[in-house]
Amino acid sequence: MKPNRRKFLQQLAIGSSAVAMGLPAFAKSPASAEILSNETPSLYPITSGARFNMSGYAAPKIDKVKIGFIGLGMRGPGAVGRMSFIEGVEIKALCDKLPERASAAQKILEKKGLPKAKEYSGENGWKEMIEKEDLDLVYICTPWHLHTPMAVFAMEHGKHAATEVAAALTIDECWQLVETSERTRKHCMMLENCCYDFFEMLTLNMVRQGMFGELIHAEGAYIHDLLDLNFSKKGYEDMWRLKENIDYNGNVYPTHGLGPIAQCMNINRGDKMDYLVSMSSNDFMMGEEAKKRAEKDAFYNQFVGKNFRGNMNTTTIRTNKGKTMMLQHDVTSPRPYSRIHVLSGTKAFASKYPEPERIAFGHEFVKDAELKKLYDTYTPPLIKHVGEIAKKVGGHGGMDFMMDWRLIDCLRNGLPLDQDVYDAAAWSCIVPLSKKSVSKRSTSIDIPDFTRGNWTTNKPVNLTLDGGGNTKVREAK
From CA 440, how far away is CA 242, in angstroms rounded? Predict the structure, then answer.
């Protein structure tokens, strides 16, 4: 056995053992203490064949999808509410570290006249739920560092896993997700809701129809002023998200911008990300905010003098086929919200931010009437099918609901998912690799091929409703 492969298997065994022993459900985040400095993509089996290719995999049909939710603080209650509108779903269990949160989510089901779900709570309530309940899908809405342990544990116990972003924080965790999904043949979907935005899906379909010609360059971002929320005692439990910004200078939240453009570029399905270069500014605001708040409240003394990540991180990526991508992350500066979403091809250009969304086939953007015609012609069947009801149900303008409905419809009809475990790993690995590049004066860093060569033959995401589209929705008012 080659040394590199042996080391990988040893690391995987250590990681699997940690999951088996049980990670405290809402332990303090270990992200900044991970062994990132020892991680090199070349250590991993990027050339050996996958055990089983999960791209395009159609799991057996599930007539009624039984779901258990973990994490009912920020994102979880909204997910429970959205799923309550979808027929063919049975919400069987609700879990949160805090019992009152599970009880509060129970009221969502009561208002809908749906059966009561079993409630779980405490540090290890999530493990108990997964072990005891007859579930088809575990829906994970917890702090970032818990996503991989919970998803792996779910798959090991015969459940499909769907996790909020990012799915993993280290390269080790990325490979754990891939290896577990392949071995168990259970889906692991990262819930990247921005892939279901109306404009993002319009441009994806236009790319597929050849309207952009050859796509050359794309840009995405997560620019969102969260300074007050991250420092708020009433925001994230135990200030976990603020802590993730300490000693982790890179793009800590890349997938909202990356997911949609990666699908447009057929990453993992005809092309792959080859290497990246990442650069961060200094921190000009978070350290000052900590000092300002500590002057009035001793609670914030714990954050004074900490090494916060820089305001702006810019990461550039080159693909195997010579195309480029640019990602940005800034959740501190006082700027309007932006995911950028730029697509530049040999025939067309698109941009969503700053709003309004625009498309050009030359030197000028098309007029409103022509843009409407493009929407009428190239809006994918998914949006035409559930887009209006999605707007009524809500969740970031409807894209959250379309994501959930599509996930359930695929599971019920035995269809491949739009986002597979290789997407979860590839999009998430930007977190540790951007940090590694920043720490090495923006040195280029190789990006692992989590498909292990299958990207050359994997098929692009299916934008039709062929074989599905029969999942009904309860009326939304």
Answer: 24
Asked if residue 304 lies in contact with residue 290, where contact means CB atoms within 8 angstroms, the answer is: yes
How far apart are the C-alpha atoms of 457 and 398, rounded to whole Å? 33
pLDDT above 90: residue 1: no
Residue 254 and residue 431 in contact, taking contact as beta carbons nearer than 8 Å = yes
Say whether 429 sits in a helix, a strand or coil.
coil
Contact 293, 239 (CB under 8 A): no
Render pLDDT for 254-294 as a digit per residue (tens, 0 to 9).
999 999 999 999 999 999 999 999 999 999 999 999 999 99
Query: Interhelix angle for 381-393 vs 198-208, to 10°?
Result: 180
In angstroms, the CA 137 to CA 461 distance is 21
pLDDT tens digit string along 101-120? 999 999 999 999 999 999 99
Give pLDDT, residue 100: 98
Contact between 426 and 77 under an 8 Å Cβ cutoff? The reply is no
Tokens of 26: 């809402």
Question: What is the C-alpha to C-alpha distance for residues 422 and 188, in angstroms, rounded to an integer?
Answer: 9
* Residue showing tokens 């050859």: 214
Cα torsion angle, 152, 156, 157, 158, sign = positive
Two structure tokens written together for 275: 């290497």
The pair of structure tokens assigned to 260 is 């949609």
The tokens for 39 are 């991680």
Which one-letter DSSP state was computed for residue 327? E
pLDDT at 476 over 70: no
For residue range 115-159, list pLDDT tens digits in order: 999 999 999 999 999 999 999 999 999 999 999 999 999 999 999
What are the beta bridge partners of residue 215? 345
The SS3 of residue 347 is coil
